Structure formats: C-alpha cells, structure tokens
Amino acid sequence: MPVREPLETGQPPWSTEPESSFSTWARRFFRGLVVVVLLLAAISGVRSWIAPNRVPQTVVTTENSFPADEARAVATRYAVSYLNWDEANPDARPARIALDLAAGLDSRAGWNGRGVQTADKAYAGEVKVDSGGVTAVVDVRVEIRPYTKRGAGWVAGPYSWARLSVPVARTASRVVASGPPTFVPDERAALPENMPEAGVPDDDLTAATLKDAEAFFSAYAESDNKVSAVTAPGSTIRSLNGSVKFGELKDWQVFAGNDDERRATAAVTWDGTGNTTLDQTYTLTLRRTVATDGAQRWQVAAVG
Fold first, then answer.
1. What is the phi/psi pair of residue 14, to 5°?
2. Main-chain phi, psi angles of 97, to 5 degrees
3. Which of 183, 214, 235 finishes a domain?
4. Buried b or exposed e, range 231-259, using 16+ CB within 10 angstroms
5. How big is the chain by its Cα radius of gyration, in Å?
6. Which DSSP state fits 290?
7. pLDDT tens for each residue of 68-92
C-alpha cells in the first residue's frame, strides 16, 4: 500500500478532479428539466383553480321535460267528456269527467244539468307549459252536435267545432285536468308575409313536360305498378290505389333550377263518387333521366 505524502498546511483532505464537459451538460439539462416540470405543474394548477374543467351537461328545461303527449291524451278525453251532456242521464257526464279531473274537484264542472249535446271527435294541439314545469294548458278542438227540445223529444242540430283551452297539471303518478276548460276563439289567420317564393317559372320545360305530368297523375290515382312505370329510377312513390280518379290537370308549372333536378307544382282535379270533384295542388320534384340511347326526359322523383 503506497504511503500518502504528508498534507501541507491548509490543504483539504481530498483531491479534486476536473469534470468532463458531458457531465456538466447533463447536470445542467436535468436541472432545467426539473424547473420546466415545476413551472408547468404550477401553471396548470393555477389554471384549474381559476377555470376548473367542467363536464358538459344536458340542459333540461321545464318544457321538454313535461309529459306533453300524456297531457294531450288527458286533455282530449277530458274535453270530450266536458262537452257531452244529457239531462236524462245527468250522472254520466260527472262519471266520465272524473276519469281525468284531479281528485277533490267538482266533477259537475259547471254544468247546470239541463240540455243535450254530444261530442265525439277531438284533436289536441299546442301544449303551453308554465315556467315552473308543473302546470300547462292544452289547445283542443272538439266537434260537437247540440240538440233542441221539440215537443217530447230532441232534434239534432248541425255539427260545429268548439275550441277549448284545457288546464292540466303533472302529479307524481300521472297528468290530471286541474279545472274546467275555457272556450277560446277559433279564427282564421292569413298566411305569413315571409312565405317562401315559388321560384322563377321555366315556361319551356313546363310545356315540354305537360303530357308526362298528366300521365303521372293518371297513374298516381290508379295503382303502385302504374305509377312506378312513370317515375324516375330509384324513386318510390305510393299511389292513391283507386280512391279517386284523375279528372284533369288544371295547371302545371316547372320552375328554374339546376340541370338535374327541378321543383314543380300541379293543380289537379280528382273525380270522386257520384258527381263530386275536388281540386288539389301538389308540389313535386322532377329529376332528369338519360336513357341508354341518350334520350333525356324529366320524370317525377317525389311528391310533396
């Protein structure tokens, strides 16, 4: 074992060796890496404090959570029961009304027990839900037929339509009528001013396709097989299957568009039973087809 030289005064009891350039680079790199990681952790942490990640949630409003279909069904039956009465059988109406009226409310629903009226057909429309999502009113139209006392009997009057606003409420188990309905006016309304434009007429194509349009509606009235023979390839159009007969094409108009597909309108007269005729206006889609011999024609691709 070699003998150490005696240390000089002030000399440290170890020896230093020069550090390689690679070691210096590696030490500095890892120090920088640690600093970067700490900075990223600090930034992401602060950002999560300020704006934490939010999981998207489905927005449920009172309107789309209200059982509108059930409300229409309840309001429809209740409206029919409400507008049916017969003084010879006064207990029948309250019994029917009680099927849908909330328990504890008066099932006579305002009727004085006199007169005769029938109601059979009813159609429910808009359901307006209140802001709390508990109650709503349902728009219902009912066909009624009043009777007039004549001598010892009753004479049926003409059919007419009544429009009602029916109040309903949702409970833990079902929707119930929450009170008597009210009559509301059923007035006509004009078309909105922003109705879509019909388009620019294409008179040349209108004239060129007139006979094809007549052939289509003749087949459309009769059978699926006949209508499929005159429609554009790939389209499926069901016929009226003989419920009416084609009378005449009173008006036919094709509108400008692209080279492959056009919009058209047709005013058609249908012949019904007896001497009955009925005019209807159709909107159609025409599609340009090319035969194997290169001949081109426009055929109906869709109705409506």
1. -140, 170
2. -65, -35
3. 183
4. bbeeeebebbeeebebbebeebbbbebee
5. 41
6. E
7. 999 999 999 999 999 999 999 999 9
